[in-house]
Amino acid sequence: MKTGIVVDNELNNDKRVLRETGILRDAGHEIFVLCFGFKGEMMPAINGLNITRISISKRIKNILFFFLNLIPVYEWMWSGAIRRFITANNPEVLHVHDLYMSRAAYRGIRNSGKQIPLILDLHENYPYAVTTYNWTKGFFRSLLSRPESWKKKEREYLGYADRIIVLSEDFRDALLQQYPRLPKESFTILPNVPDPCQMAPGEVPVPVTGFEKGVTVVLYFGVVAERRGIFDVLDVFSTLSGTNHPSAFLVIGPVDKKDRNLFFERIASESLKGRVRYIPWIDMSELQAYLDIADICIAPFHKNPQHESGVANKIFDYMLGGLPVIASDCGPQKKLIEKCRCGMIYANKEQMKEAIITLSADPALRKEMGENGKKAILSEYNITIKGKVLADLYAGLKTVHEIND
After folding, report:
1. What is the pLDDT of residue 402?
2. CB neighbourhood size of 318 (10 A)
3. What pLDDT shows up at residue 77?
4. What is the DSSP letter of 320?
5. Distances 272 to 100, 213, 223, 233, 394 between C-alpha atoms, Å
6. Which segments of the chain have a pLDDT < 70?
7. pLDDT tens track for 217-264
8. How many CB atoms lie within 10 A of CB 214?
């Protein structure tokens, strides 16, 4: 089956899309991809994929996207590019990523004169998520970017799709509750599960020094931001410091611009001196090396519609790394961790503190939970197993197509 994939990003850096193309390629699909190719960045070809890149500077892309709800040039651009892409490659189905690409894809299909199904792949609860992004914050930015418009447009944009892929049952059920006319059978659930072969042991390229011998190291990996609960963890470690608890916090990832001053001020404070180590960035290939020197991982996301839409990549990565997970009680991650018995859930900072104390004091429990998590990834929560639903979705579309022909 000739399959068209559209993503408004650079394909090589999008883990979810690459995993999905791998599933389809293994199922025998001929895959054509339309994506951005940012000026000044040379990306290598990917075996088995026919890639068409739209050359654009990141700055121009960001400006056009910022004004999407005011003057939809971004959507017009993509609609035209998708029409040309369909005409040139004649795909039998079009698979587009993210809610805001839905109408452009629908118009591109219509303007091409083809009648092919449209699959919409939702990576997040975009109408909520966009209201939390820094570039939409502030009176003038909000006035120009109009993030609140996406909640009003969500039903329309979902309606353009023949099939919808979501991260979790929770997200699907929330959408069905809001929009009961959407058919349940149009949804496919594909979580952000990892490839079991993605990480291998290695040496830490930047030695993590300064922690006292015998301390329990708690690791956070990902974007550092208030909305992700990072300051809740710092508050807890300030409290633990006051009791001389033998634990430390290792933070790896870029800091949101609006949170930078407060974050660096906090980790330099007297109460956290010697308790926190910060590394701005590592390559994904290095993650296992850092997991090997940690004892516990943490996912402190604030409970909100975005974090209720699915399980974050990092939790599956923590589990694959064989470490116990301490996580906030967002629905999808709570269900996963409790089902797999691979960590502890908390509802407030006091419970987070108690979870750190409990796991720090019990190496056997840490080992048991870590092994449970890794076993769950290898036996069930991986792209080889969960990815079958994507192959099944396409097989169903092909059957319908053949019947109609």
Report:
1. 52
2. 32
3. 97
4. H
5. 42, 17, 20, 11, 52
6. 198-211, 398-405
7. 999 999 999 989 999 999 999 999 999 999 999 999 999 988 999 999
8. 6
Give the global pTM: 0.89
Domains of the chain: 2-190+387-404 (3.40.50.2000), 216-379 (3.40.50.2000)
Q: Which amino acid type is present at position 308?
A: E
Q: Residue holding tokens 């070809």?
A: 45
Interior CA angle at 303 toward 300 and 304, to 5°? 135
Query: Quick one: pLDDT at residue 403?
Result: 45
Determine the distance from the C-alpha atom of residue 23 to the mean position of all C-alpha atoms in its chain, rounded to a whole number.
18
Q: Is 393 helix (H, G, I), strand (E, B) or coil?
A: helix
Q: Evaluate whether 40 touches 128 at the Cβ level (below 8 Å).
A: no
What would the two tokens of residue 356 be? 């750190």
- HEC assignment per residue over 132-199: HCHHHCCHHHHHHHCCCHHHHHHHHHHHCCCEEEECCHHHHHHHHHHCCCCCHHHEEECCCCCCCCCC
Token readout for 324 is 């116990």
| The token pair that represents 215 in the structure block | 């301390």
- Kind and range of the H or E run holding 244: none
Write down the pLDDT at residue 42: 82
Dig out the tokens for 48 from the structure.
Answer: 């088995």
Q: How far apart are CA 31 and CA 10, in angstroms?
A: 16
Antiparallel, parallel or unpaired: β 163-166 and 118-121: parallel
